[in-house]
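Predict the assembly for these two chains.
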Amino acid sequence: MNSAVAYIHEQLTTSKTFPRFKAGDNVTVNYKIIEGNKERIQSFKGDVIKRQGDGHTATFTVRKISDGVGVERIFPVSSPNIESVVLNKAGKVRRAKLYFQRTRSGKSARIKEKRVK
Amino acid sequence: MKGIIGKKIGMTSIFSPDGKQTSCTIIEAGPCTVTQVKTKDTDGYTALQLAYGDKNDKHSSKSEKGHFAKSSSSPKRFVKEFRDFSLEKNIGESITVDIFAEGDKVDVVGTSKGKGFQGVVKRHGFSGVGQQSHGQHDRQRAPGSIGNSSDASRVFKGMRMAGRMGGTRVKARSLKVVKIFPDKNFILVSGSVPGHNGSIVLIQK
């Protein structure tokens, strides 16, 4: 990364520490919602289907099935609106981008859990 | 007007405290040396001549060295003139990014990226033919008719056609100054700025 870009983010962006997660993991993202002047926290639970970009502009995409409809949300890693990320389950996958999940549903959309010995 | 010469570094995006993401461009601007002050009496108009970027002594001609010696500065690579400068500056003084403040609206002038020889769809935003069947064969991006037949009997001047695109002077107007870093000479403006990374830009207000 460009050193000037790194310097700017050092000054302006507050970095948070999340558990290490990758594509295939099941996570819960707790993010802030601002309605008028009220602020509350909503959570989004699903499988990470990709991590994209690097540095402070990186994002990750979480996919879940809500009432039978697939819903995807893209979260910027450095967004101040993300309260926390909880790693529920580590998945065992062979790809970095799980776009094939979009054409699957039900049993075939399950991701095997990675067991740590 | 006030202004400064700088170098486009690159783009990134930052978050505001309420979570809004804005894309912005980093420009390394100044410090510039005032190498000449033009006045109404001597030159017929008022302007400041600014110089930016060090240059090897070996590559400067004798006349250049003489000109820069007047402002007791080393030879510089880029020399630009800003007309009717709103700040009072004397010859030899330096201008840094702190002539601007956060929230200012500035114009950024640069040379746009060269695109080479381009057709009318990319160059002028023509919509193309719009369909592939009904005898279009291979002319989906053709310009179509460029004029009438006997009445006129010529193509009007300024008819938009294919040709060289980009590589021209472009001004991006009214960009917001997001942040200033005086110790690093960085200025952060919202949105994009014409030109390649590393190209010379003028920031004006």
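Chain B has two domains: 3-118+169-204, 119-165. The domain at 3-118+169-204 of chain B is CATH 2.40.30.10 (Elongation Factor Tu (Ef-tu); domain 3).
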